[in-house]
Write a structure and sequence with these properties.
alpha+beta, PH-domain like, three-stranded antiparallel sheet, 24% helix, flat, binds zinc ion
Length: 220
């Protein structure tokens, strides 16, 4: 079984809350980078640890998201498991509250350990969406998941044509590749010219697109 590479180049600056099997201490700031076949935790210039997705068993995202009143972490009751609760953790979290109003907790479980991180840059739901590709990679390397999906196709084989069955099995074994968004075309809402979907401005009429502008390129 070939592992689907992950194209996400998402990089998150997190604070270590605790864990086991990782060489980072609580309250240390780490850059968590999701690369093609692995993720990397980096602290400073010299200290880093790389874990392959094949070693990654679970990613869990939890937390209250935006907290309107600062502080108030009293060593538990904020949705992460008991192993990392305690006075030291509450101290770290309360200190983080002065820097960040968003509290998102990220747990990475690997073959050799687990690490619990705090991320203040995105709400839990937004981070879950940003990490979609990582979750897809995780599902696709799960042999139990693949077997269950295959068993479903096999159980419905009688109700479909051979061609359809072969198509669905081939898509399960080797997912279709998707054209990157950067290659899609759109139409300028101002001059109706066909332009790349992700254009910041129209090359023909110079209309502006993106955040804070009234126009947006219409997908075609
Ligand atoms: Zn235009």
């Amino acid at each position: 079984m070939q592992q689907a590479p992950c194209d996400s180049s998402l990089s998150l600056t997190c604070t270590v809350l605790g864990g086991f099997g990782f060489d980072f201490s609580p309250n240390e700031t780490v850059d968590l980078k999701f690369k093609q076949e692995s993720f990397e935790l980096r602290s400073g210039e010299l200290h880093h640890q790389e874990i392959y997705y094949l070693e990654l068993e679970e990613v869990e995202i939890a937390g209250p998201g935006t907290v309107t009143k600062g502080g108030g972490f009293i060593g538990g009751g904020f949705g992460i498991d008991g192993a990392i609760q305690g006075i030291a953790l509450a101290t770290i979290l309360n200190a983080l509250t002065t820097k960040s109003k968003v509290h998102t907790f990220l747990k990475l479980v690997t073959n050799s350990g687990e690490i619990h991180l705090h991320y203040g840059g995105m709400e839990p739901a937004a981070l879950r969406i940003a990490l979609s590709e990582v979750f897809v990679v995780l599902r696709r390397q799960d042999l139990g998941w693949l077997a269950a999906r295959r068993a479903l196709l096999d159980s419905k084989k009688d109700g479909m044509s051979n061609e359809q069955y072969e198509l669905l099995v081939s898509r399960l074994l080797k997912p279709p590749t998707h054209r990157p968004l950067s290659e899609r075309q759109g139409r300028c809402p101002s001059c109706d010219e066909s332009i790349p979907l992700l254009s910041p401005t129209c090359p023909k009429c110079h209309a502006q697109f993106g955040a804070g502008t009234a126009w947006s390129v219409k997908p075609i």
